[in-house]
Design a protein that fits this description.
two-stranded antiparallel sheet
Length: 360
């Protein structure tokens, strides 16, 4: 919105032309989202406490988590509010990619919000049935995948780019649809599984979003894309503003979510943020790089799959408890140690992912 105002004011004073720069608007988006989260956060937490929207802790989880019962949850709504406001203020709203990312993020947030609501009103940790949750995630994932496939303007938009290789690119054709679905829904659920300790999920999300912003900026710029030998997708650079807003909102939420947490994001935040990372990776044609940078999310998901498969096939558990962060808790690691070490791993993986931009 403010971009249109700046364009109009530029006719009277040329200095307003500075708002055309993506870098400036992404920084302003991050600062705006951060400010909203910090200012609105205390009020949101107080309101959640008044409404008794407290976390229900599973009785089969680590005993150390029992003390967290009653901590306000659904704080992810604060993240989504901050992201949406900052994106709408500083983005070019005529850009279709901005709306694609917003619709996916808020759509998955709605699914997570319904899930959280049912958990809280039913006073149990089940919420939406697995079938219902995956149904609505699939509707959103397949819907956006089909839209992107039908609206693709160049072949590269539906081509799988393999990192580290200059000439390896696989035209997907209609296979683009199931791949996009798997990336979005898989990423959404992976972040949700990771969201089990204070600040564990939000910081890796912020780090990966920041790295994807770099990819988005380069992919949407013909000069950088040509120099780095990565695909050029016209207009996709605009989602840098969304990435900036996500980083700002995530850091603002972390202010209240850091150990010991004053508020949890809940499924409304975790499902939405995971889907956001997935759709951004699809738009910038870096699905495989997302697997690298989001390695912590991948490890958490794989640990659950292996645990379930092993127990059903052999009756034995591989880990003391899944997802993986609970395994280390039960080994005696203090919660802050698990959190910070997972953050460090994410920093390393994000740097490795960024390195693939140049090493080809």
């Amino acid at each position: 919105m403010l971009l249109y105002l700046a364009n109009w004011l530029e006719g009277f004073y040329s200095a307003f032309g500075v708002f055309q720069y993506l870098t400036l608007r992404s920084i302003l988006g991050a600062l705006t989202a951060l400010t909203i989260a910090l200012l609105v956060g205390p009020g949101v937490i107080r309101r959640l406490v008044e409404l008794k929207i407290g976390q229900y802790v599973r009785d089969d989880g680590p005993e150390s988590h029992l003390s967290k019962a009653g901590t306000p949850t659904m704080g992810g709504a604060l993240i989504l509010l901050s992201i949406a406001a900052a994106t709408l203020l500083w983005s070019d709203l005529s850009n279709r990619y901005v709306w694609v990312v917003l619709v996916v993020t808020l759509g998955f947030g709605l699914v997570g919000g319904v899930d959280d609501y049912l958990k809280l009103t039913g006073r149990n940790s089940k919420g939406l049935s697995a079938r219902a949750k995956y149904f609505w995630q699939s509707v959103l994932g397949l819907g956006v995948a089909f839209y992107l496939f039908q609206s693709a303007q160049t072949p590269v938009e539906t081509t799988l780019i393999v990192p580290l290789f200059k000439e390896v690119a696989l035209p997907l054709g209609w296979l683009f649809i199931p791949l996009t679905y798997l990336v979005i829904v898989g990423s959404s659920n992976a972040v949700n599984l990771t969201d089990g300790l204070d600040g564990l999920a939000i910081m890796p999300t912020v780090l990966v979003a920041g790295a994807l912003a770099v990819f988005a900026y380069a992919t949407g710029n013909t000069v950088f894309a040509t120099y780095l030998q990565i695909p050029y997708v016209a207009g996709v650079g605009e989602i840098v503003v969304f990435c900036g807003a996500l980083v700002g909102a995530g850091l603002g939420f972390l202010w209240f979510n850091t150990y010991p947490a004053q508020v949890f994001m809940g499924d409304v935040g975790a499902l939405a943020l995971g889907a956001a990372l997935g759709i951004i990776a699809v738009l910038v044609r870096q699905e495989l790089v997302l697997l690298i940078m989001g390695g912590v999310f991948v490890m958490e998901t794989v640990s659950v799959i292996l645990q379930v498969a092993s127990y059903k096939l052999t009756g034995r558990r591989i880990f003391r408890m899944a997802p993986l962060h609970h395994h280390f808790e039960l080994k005696g690691w203090p919660e802050p140690r698990v959190i910070v070490r997972f953050w460090i791993i994410t920093v390393i993986l994000v740097l490795a992912g960024l390195a693939t931009m140049k090493i080809r």
